[in-house]
């Protein structure tokens, strides 16, 4: 699955000022990212505010994104949740046209056991018409997918092709990378530690900040994958302050502030998220201008 090496970007969902989906803004963003040289795109992940979109909106966004991309880049669809039966139905009904894989976040709030997580993904894998990427993000879900469960899933289901790993736990990274099947993709889900994760063996990243600076970030990731860490380090360090600001008041409010300043799309988010404070917005704009040069 070489198509998922490098930088994938978890697309934000642009909204108009009245909260409706801004399809013109989404088209601008997609073109901006393709021009920026990223390797693939992820539609309706966490960064896409998928939990505040209704079923009809999701279908329209998935279709519009596939039509706009038009085969120019691989596409991943975010389909996850904490009601296994509902997710299985969504996966079965999903129009795969233009899509290459499904990214599914581990169940949130329920706090299932490891066996529960395994059975959740087993049900998804058996129903999925496309390859599946696991997504471990304990900071959002309230539970961790253990290395043992990840390796068990990787070995038991050939269509589970990798994991977006955002636990921030380097001991966990060590165990997964040591024990995983050779062709199982280990993908960073955490922008600030992507460079060291690639050094350990990650295939790349599914990024938030890549929405704003696709060229700078994807260049850094490619340099890392090529083993040119001296050059990659410079790009990595140049983005440290910007990356920190992106998450200072939550994602995707931070990166939408930068995107608005860059003229790509607006900064509206849907409740319960709110726009960043004016103080943080000023800092983001200042840092955006500094990187843009």
Biggest sheet architecture? 8 strands, parallel, barrel
Number of helices: 13
Helix content: 40-55%
Distance between the termini: 35 Å
- Approximate strand percentage: 5-15%
Which class best fits the helix and strand makeup? alpha/beta
CATH architecture: Alpha-Beta Barrel
Topology, please?
Elements: E1 6-10, H1 23-35, E2 40-43, H2 55-69, E3 75-78, H3 84-93, E4 101-105, H4 114-127, E5 132-136, H5 138-141, H6 147-156, E6 160-165, H7 170-179, E7 185-188, H8 194-200, E8 204-207, H9 214-225, H10 229-238, H11 240-246, H12 253-261, H13 278-292
Parallel strand pairs: 1-2, 1-8, 2-3, 3-4, 4-5, 5-6, 6-7, 7-8
Helix pairs in contact: 1-2, 3-4, 4-6, 6-7, 8-9, 9-10, 11-13, 12-13
Would you give an account of this structure?
It is a single chain. The chain is α/β, with parallel strands linked by helices and about 290 residues long. The chain has one domain: TIM Barrel. The chain is about 45% helix and about 15% strand. It has 13 helices and eight strands. An eight-stranded parallel beta barrel has the order 1-2-3-4-5-6-7-8, surrounded by seven helices. It catalyses: L-aspartate 4-semialdehyde + pyruvate = (2S,4S)-4-hydroxy-2,3,4,5-tetrahydrodipicolinate + H2O + H(+). Keywords: Amino-acid biosynthesis, Cytoplasm, Diaminopimelate biosynthesis, Lyase, Lysine biosynthesis, Schiff base. This is 4-hydroxy-tetrahydrodipicolinate synthase.
